Amino acid sequence: MSASAPVSAPPPVPPATVTPRASSPLAGFFIDLGIAAVTLFGLSLVGGLIWGLYRGIVVGYASAKSGGGTPDPAAVTQQLGQPGALGQVLMALVATGGAALLVYFWRRPANAAERQRSRDALRRPSTWGWTLLVASAIVIGSNGIAFVAKQMGIEPVPTNLELMQNAVARFPLFLTLFAVVLAPAYEELLFRRVLFGRLWQAGRPWLGMILSSLAFALIHEIPGTSANGPAEIAQLWLVYGGMGAAFCWLYRRTGTLWAAIAAHALNNAVALAALVFFGAT
């Protein structure tokens, strides 16, 4: 008589001590990044469609009021034009801010213990000392990289420079609110709290720093969207990537995202002041 189990016997049940395998934090990182990218693109598309619909109504009403005949498609396209500085800034705010808030509340909302640790960190004087130090190092480092690159004949033009110049001339107060308050808050929420924070929590902070900083650099300078060549793009990526890494380090060092937001805001304030008073980038 055979001692083996019959063919129809069910498979053995795993021991009770075996726990289900946890999902990969790296996979979670790319899922978060993918959700944010799709949301950003979708909100940008919706914003463009709303603006196009508004302009279409305005142009159609003006044409009907003037008693014109069938409009020429080329003339209509020219009349529609492109969103102005205020429209582009608002669309960027809604798209990127919406993506950051969605991923944060859906994928990685803060719990009560994390909020308490952040509040405790805000009371420590060292938190603000590190914030000032990192913000100063970023300004000095960025200008140092730009100086060295200029000696090599590399002088990139940031993709958003023309937009910022137009917005400064026409909507200085709103641009200041956007660049110094709103943009640092939602960018830090997405790139540091959600993306970097996932891998930091999983015990892989250096990988999180590298990947989130690469994503931060890419979203600020997308190849093919400006006249910058490979060398110019590489310099901008080095600057933006270095900034992202510094903000990650500060967030981890102080234990509060508010430190990274404050350092980011200080950096943007210095850059905006340089643009207003010196026309520099």
Number of DSSP E strands: 0
Give the overall average pLDDT. 86
The H-and-E topology, N to C, reads as HHHHHHHHHH
**Overall number of structural domains:** 1
GO molecular function, one term: metallopeptidase activity
Domain CAAX prenyl protease 2/Lysostaphin resistance protein A-like: 171-270
Keywords: Hydrolase, Membrane, Metalloprotease, Protease, Transmembrane, Transmembrane helix
Pfam families: Rce1-like
Task: Describe the protein.
By secondary structure, this protein is mainly alpha-helical. The chain has one domain. It has helices at 25-66, 73-80, 85-107, 112-122, 125-151, 161-170, 172-201, 205-220, 230-254, 257-278. α5 packs across α10 (257-278). The longest helix is centred in the N-terminal third of the chain and has 42 residues, at 25-66. The radius of gyration is 25 Å and the shape is globular. Residues 1-21 have low confidence and may be disordered. InterPro entries: CAAX_protease (IPR052710), Rce1/LyrA-like_dom (IPR003675). The chain crosses the membrane at residues 29-54, 85-106, 127-149, 169-186, 206-222, 234-251, 258-280. Keywords: Hydrolase, Membrane, Metalloprotease, Protease, Transmembrane, Transmembrane helix.
